[in-house]
Write a sequence for this structure.
């Protein structure tokens, strides 16, 4: 067990909001350069998983272990500096700063900052460096989230619904981008509703329903799985189980 | 189209110049203005107070303009400064200028003690600092502490009175506060604070230790208020505790800063000078109405003109330049 090269291990993570178990005993392991899809109907706990691992919420139980170190309940900035980062379902740029300055903030507080221009080039935002945020499209703002994450030289990035609302051309661009990060050895957990996009980026998935894991394995098999089909076709009717 | 490296080098030489020239002008103009004003207008104490308000408004600027936390209890640091500096003069015979610096340290120390208030947000923070400062006042003015603070009877610094020196110190504090704001604005620290103001959680995922960075801003701001209170006490010479622990000090400093425009270097200076002049021209006869009016002004400014006069000015300038662009 000690010789396994697991990058991030999530063990029985449970997050509770009031009486609601938004996340229930979810476990997951991921290695460097690996990409895993995180799917499930609306409200199934995908973003909650990201938020809990990234230190926004404290889990009710369970552990998060990065390269053998227990980082459960650590504060967000130390989690970010340790190498875990994320994008936001609704992008959260620093709206009073330029594109360049947005990335510079990460770079200032990074343990080993990546060059800002290189980072912008990797997400195709280089020519927007001196633009204000208000001039960016939603897709570009999401890529700026990615750039801010990359400036901290992350080992793993949680990508929360990058594809929603993109044109086919943009989808292709973003898929290529994510594949390239993998090639650099960055692990990724990709939250996504668009299966067509997801199959370009990941081979395996974890399916959540009402906060519980109902499937882990190859994406192909997931699409054939009876329970997964029922959850997706049945909409939110599973919410109470 | 120039490549990004070109843009960067152009900007960096350009902005290095600007980085020094802009703040130098923003510092020197008010400093020279105050130095000359005394030859035109002979009420030195009033000018001293005006300079103190410029510094206080700049202190509020660092706090609210760069972190979004509105410190209604700002007067607590002011009062502590007045007492700490006054007591080291009286009890240890410290020279007044050194006492002023120690008053600033006293303000910062109290700021450090009040750090847990940062767990509060928005209005709760504003009210929390207010309550904390009232508590400090109650302790300082308590008769049972009379042997230490002279309790409700205040301090008498008449032996150290030197109106010229006090005015000079107030002008120096104006310079210090403006330089501090310029530094915060132009530095990585300022960039970090702006990021936090925009989105604290995003900032933390960018690796920013949010509480610690806010704390630094809070300390600078508290030290400025502590020094301002020290000079106020020294210039006023004899004061009761309620004169230096006065919540209207916070209200005025906040109004001045907001009116001029927080987040900028010039805004609070202009706001404090303009409004304090108006306040003294009209307000002396019936100050209680002014409290009411200023209260209403804070609400209106926060709601409708969060960037103050300067924000309004920038808005107009932007409109004009975009019109020019279109015509090109
Ligand atoms: N901060 C919060 N406070 C209370 N409840 C929350 C909070 N965040 C999420 N929830 C609830 O937790 C459940 C899971 O929400 P979550 O946002 O994780 O779903 P999701 O899988 O990301 O959905 P979507 O596909 O719509 O983004 C939902 O019932 C949601 O209402
Ligand atoms: Mg979500």
């Amino acid at each position: 067990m000690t010789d396994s090269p697991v990058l991030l291990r999530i063990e029985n993570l449970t997050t509770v909001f009031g009486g609601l178990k938004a996340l229930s005993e979810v476990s997951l392991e991921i290695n460097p350069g690996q990409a895993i899809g995180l799917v499930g109907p609306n409200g199934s706990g995908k973003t909650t998983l990201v938020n809990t691992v990234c230190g926004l919420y404290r889990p009710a139980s369970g552990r998060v272990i990065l390269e053998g170190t227990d980082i459960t309940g650590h504060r967000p900035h130390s989690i970010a500096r340790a190498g875990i980062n994320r994008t936001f379902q609704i992008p959260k740029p620093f709206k009073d700063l330029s594109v360049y300055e947005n990335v510079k903030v990460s770079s200032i507080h990074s343990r080993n900052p990546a060059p800002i221009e290189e980072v912008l080039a990797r997400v195709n935002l280089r020519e927007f460096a001196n633009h204000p945020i208000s001039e960016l499209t939603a897709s570009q703002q999401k890529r700026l989230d990615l750039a801010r994450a990359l400036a901290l030289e992350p080992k793993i990035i949680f990508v929360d619904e990058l594809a929603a609302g993109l044109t086919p051309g943009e989808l292709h661009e973003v898929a290529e981008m994510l594949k390239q990060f993998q090639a650099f050895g960055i692990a990724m957990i990709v939250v996504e509703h668009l299966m067509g996009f997801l199959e370009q980026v990941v081979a395996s998935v974890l399916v959540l329903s009402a906060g519980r894991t109902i499937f882990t394995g190859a994406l192909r098999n997931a699409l054939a799985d009876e329970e997964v089909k029922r959850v997706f076709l049945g909409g939110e009717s599973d919410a109470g189980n | 189209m120039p490549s990004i490296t070109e843009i960067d080098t152009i900007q960096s030489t350009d902005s290095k110049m600007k980085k020094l020239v802009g703040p130098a002008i923003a510092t020197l103009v008010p400093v020279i203005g105050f130095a000359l004003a005394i030859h035109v207008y002979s009420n030195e104490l009033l000018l001293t107070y005006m300079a103190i308000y410029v510094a206080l408004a700049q202190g509020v600027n660092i706090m609210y303009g760069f972190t979004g936390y509105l410190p209604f209890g700002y007067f607590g640091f002011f009062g502590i400064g007045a007492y700490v500096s006054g007591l080291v003069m009286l009890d240890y015979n410290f020279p007044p200028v050194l006492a002023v610096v120690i008053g600033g340290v006293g303000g910062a120390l109290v700021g450090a003690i009040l750090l847990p208030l940062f767990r509060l947000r928005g209005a709760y923070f504003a009210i929390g600092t207010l309550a904390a400062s009232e508590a400090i006042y109650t302790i300082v003015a308590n008769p049972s502490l009379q042997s230490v603070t002279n309790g409700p009877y205040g301090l008498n610094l008449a032996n150290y009175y030197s109106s010229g020196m006090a005015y000079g110190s107030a002008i120096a504090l104006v310079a210090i506060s403006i330089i501090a704001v310029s530094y915060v604005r132009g530095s990585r620290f300022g960039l970090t604070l702006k990021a936090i103001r925009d989105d604290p959680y995003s900032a933390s995922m960018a690796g920013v230790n949010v509480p610690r960075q806010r704390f630094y801003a809070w300390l600078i701001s508290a030290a400025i208020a502590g020094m301002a209170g020290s000079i106020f006490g020294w210039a006023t010479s004899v004061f009761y505790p309620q004169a230096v622990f006065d919540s209207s000090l916070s209200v005025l400093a906040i109004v001045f800063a907001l009116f001029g425009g927080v987040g900028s270097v010039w805004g609070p200076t202009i706001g404090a000078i303009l409004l304090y002049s108006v306040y003294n021209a009209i307000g002396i006869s019936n100050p209680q109405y002014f409290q009411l009016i200023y209260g209403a002004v804070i609400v209106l400014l926060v709601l409708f003109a969060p960037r103050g006069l300067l924000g309004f000015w920038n808005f107009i300038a932007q409109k004009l330049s975009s019109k020019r662009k279109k015509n090109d």
About this structure: The interface with chain B takes residues 54-56, 75-77, 80-81, 85-86, 88, 92-97, 101-102, 104-106, 108-111, 117, 120, 126-127, 129-130, 148-149, 151-152 of chain A (CB under 8 Å). DSSP finds nine helices and ten strands in chain A.
